[in-house]
Write a structure and sequence with these properties.
The structure is a homodimer.
Chain A: H1 5-24, H2 30-40, E1 42-44, H3 45-51, H4 57-69, E2 73-78, E3 84-89, H5 91-94, H6 97-115
Antiparallel strand pairs in A: 1-3, 2-3
The structure holds a DNA duplex.
Protein name (chains A, B): Helix-turn-helix transcriptional regulator
InterPro entries (chains A, B): HTH_HxlR (IPR002577), WH-like_DNA-bd_sf (IPR036388), WH_DNA-bd_sf (IPR036390)
Keywords (chains A, B): DNA-binding, Transcription, Transcription regulation
Chain lengths: 117, 117
DNA sequence: CGGGATCCTTACTGATACTG
DNA sequence: CAGTATCAGTAAGGATCCCG
């Protein structure tokens, strides 16, 4: 394919940006975890554990830590007995909402297309 | 959080749909591969190998096969010497374009936010 | 050029048990 | 409840060589 040099640069940058996104959202669970928190606004550890079918507490703990490091979720310890920990999306994390919504819609369509044919 | 039962059902379905999407798009490379094909419309094996920084031919081969199975990409063998294989998105694959674009934009923003601070 | 086959290493993941 | 620690299996990924 023949492209203007400027076009090629543009595509390279776009590719890099996509990679950057995927570096943050990598792994089997991250998107699902974000979705869970996103759909409910605030969510406790054990709730997310239930929402995300199949995840282990170890994985959830690890993934949440990474998401927190990337400033996508905020962790709040509530002073209850026993202790409760609440997760919510940061402002930055909330900017993923559009993508989550699209993925939700796309997932439904895909299921129809592939599984339902 | 107190929710109407209907709300809970809705969230569960949304979570499932997200999972379905991620099942198809799993792995470190799929999104990047789709992006490469998407941005260039048509793309050869070795071109994608170059676009997606760090991927090995084995992985690319495997991932493309899976994407083909899920009817997201179409594989065309061109009768050149030596052989050329061209990949393009199917109609169904093209419905991911919106998500790719959002991920591109989000990646740029995220880089500013995290790396550039 | 576009892969497949092989070997090898590391990363991911799950199950279970345990702690504050 | 919200994790951590340990162990152990599986899968992902890379490097290299090979073939039509």
């Amino acid at each position: 394919m023949q492209c203007e040099p400027l076009q090629i640069d543009k595509h390279k940058k776009e590719m890099m940006a996509v990679q950057d996104s995927m570096d943050v959202l990598n792994g089997k669970w991250k998107i699902s975890i974000i979705s869970s928190i996103c759909y409910y606004n605030k969510r406790r550890f054990s709730d997310i554990l239930n929402d995300v079918a199949g995840i282990s507490n170890k994985m959830l703990s690890k993934e949440l830590k990474e998401l927190e490091m990337n400033q996508l979720v905020k962790r709040t310890v509530l002073d209850t007995q026993p202790i409760t920990v609440q997760y919510e999306l940061t402002e930055h994390g909330l900017t993923l909402k559009t993508i989550i919504n699209h993925l939700t819609d796309w997932g439904k369509e895909h299921r129809k297309k592939i599984i339902g044919e």
